[in-house]
Amino acid sequence: xxxxxxxxxxxxxxxxxxxxxxxxxxxxxxxxxxxxxxxxxxxxxxxxxxxxxxxxxxxxxxxxxxxxxxxxxxxxxxxxxxxxxxxxxxxxxxxxxxxxxxxxxxxxxxxxxxxxxxxxxxxxxxxxxxxxxxxxxxxxxxxxxxxxxxxxxxxxxxxxxxxxxxxxxxxxxxxxxxxxxxxxxxxxxxxxxxxxxxxxxxxxxxxxxxxxxxxxxxxxxxxxxxxxxxxxxxxxxxxxxxxxxxxxxxxxxxxxxxxxxxxxxxxxxxxxxxxxxxxxxxxxxxxxxxxxxxxxxxxxxxxxxxxxxxxxxxxxxxxxxxxxxxxxxxxxxxxxxxxxxxxxxxxxxxxxxxxxxxxxxxxxxxxxxxxxxxxxxxxxxxxxxxxxxxxxxxxxxxxxxxxxxxxxxxxxxxxxxxxxxxx
Length: 423
Fold this sequence. Notes:
Layout: H1 3-22, H2 25-34, H3 41-62, H4 68-76, H5 82-87, H6 93-100, H7 102-107, H8 112-117, E1 128-133, H9 140-148, E2 153-155, H10 162-174, E3 187-193, E4 203-209, H11 212-220, H12 237-240, E5 245-252, E6 258-269, E7 276-286, H13 287-299, H14 304-307, E8 310-317, H15 326-341, H16 346-356, E9 368-370, E10 374-377, E11 381-384, H17 387-399, H18 408-422
Parallel strand pairs: 1-4, 1-5, 5-8, 8-9
Antiparallel strand pairs: 2-3, 3-4, 6-7, 10-11
Helix pairs in contact: 2-3, 9-10
């Protein structure tokens, strides 16, 4: 062997040794491409196959947390083919097309922040106002958005919050996760919910968007020990005080029992520019504690006039696709609720419902609904499934006091009341 050949073999051994030690799928792929006749080809191919298998396992394991840009790079550089990715059920073909054109897809959606600037926090009179109380990142906004895309829900896009509602629908249609709702944003989305069974049995509903930070920090966290809604001074309270009938839902996120909330605290204002001087503050809030405090606020006599207008209070467990298949998730959701939330919440809530005749059709017991917007993939891209949205929309329609059919004992009660009033 000549000295040049020896040098070449030695150099190749050094390169392969460096690549092998780094254990990087991109470098191994590059090495095989640039050195097709390397004496270490079989070793490199064996390592490459192992790294591919590990990469696909990580894609499936991490799911939404897997770096979408890394996934696209892997495909674009030919490290793993599209067919291998799709056949391994990492993503579907439509989701992959979305991931490959994210910038274009985002550009086609109505700017949600612009839509927020043109909103109106006014409730249509004579409708039922439906509130979803949940901490930040609990899936509350995604839940409302998916309801707006339900087959049973018609949204009035010409109403005050029409642009915001349209933006939410476009995010669902595109399969993109909705940006975080600002802490002070409150609005009412005017809708009509029709029945699965009868076209005539419809309900007029305002979906109230209440930001999670306001709920957690100003209402349930309640550091100043204020228990009457009218004294809280938060933006959603004025809507609570209107004359519409109401339905309340507590949103439960089964993936995080405690949530860390960051917020800017204003210390003062710059003398020259007038710009606020702030510092970042955070607090950790427990979901069960927040719900418990909210029930305590409901119990306060100062809020009686609001509670007299409430027809139903229930729970929704979001992100239920992480709890198993359709059968498993119902059982798992009840286990989580009973183990983590029912204690110190359920009995006081049932007593409250008895006092104000809330949840009368279920013997004053709240219902627990599981909810998933659909199947999620890397990059938090999802494929929308309307099953849970339709089911929840039908439940909401049935809760609406002025729209649900009266049961036989309610009809008797009405007759008795009429007779007494005539006498």
